[in-house]
Structure formats: C-alpha cells, structure tokens
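Lay summary. Proteins are chains of building blocks that fold into shapes, and those shapes determine what they do. In this project we predict the shape from the chain. Here is one chain we studied, written as its sequence of building blocks.
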Amino acid sequence: MRTSRIIDRLTGRGGVERDGKIICEVDYEIIVSQPAADTQTTTNAEASPETPDARGRLRILEGKRNLMEGDLTLCLTDGRRWKFTVTNGNPVSALYMVSQAGGDSLAPGTAPT
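And here is the predicted shape, written in a compact code that computers can read:
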C-alpha cells in the first residue's frame, strides 16, 4: 500500500493569474505531501525520493468566479507562484478543488519564483 506524509500546509490569501493577469482574489489551503517509500521492498540505497504532491482548495473572494479553463497560477502570500489544475469546482459556490500542474513544487525550502 502506498502512503504519503504531510510535509507542509499552506493557508492564506492570494491572487489567481491567467494569461499574466490577476483575475481573482482567493483564500487558499494547500496540503503538500511526500510519498513515503515502502521500507519492506526497498533499501535506503534503492529508494529514490519522489516529487512532493500538492493539492487543496480555493475559495474565491473577489473577481472572476469561473476557473474551469486556461492555465492558472496561484500567487501565494510568501511570493511563491504555483501552477495548478482545477479538479472539481463550481462557479456558483466559488469553491474549487485544485492539484499541482507541472513541476512547480511547494515543498518546504523551495524558493519563490
């Protein structure tokens, strides 16, 4: 069985960018997790660290409420930028579930880009 451990929890208020323009302001909660190696089948020498995964939720406060299309980037309060994909959402409720798109990592220790 594959397991993950939470390595960071990010919460705050930020902007969502599409095509280089901020389209809305959101509250965000993002969970960053690291897949745990299966110690029964690999040794430390064989285990290669996997890329952390990030997923969470956005609640739109102001601005455009439809995030269902386009390349989207979340601008976090600490200056980091995170490309994401909407996995589920509703423009009426303004609540969206999101996951990491591309290689942008939100793992602790990654510098703002």
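What the prediction tells us: Strands lie at 3-18, 21-36, 53-63, 72-75, 81-90, 95-100.
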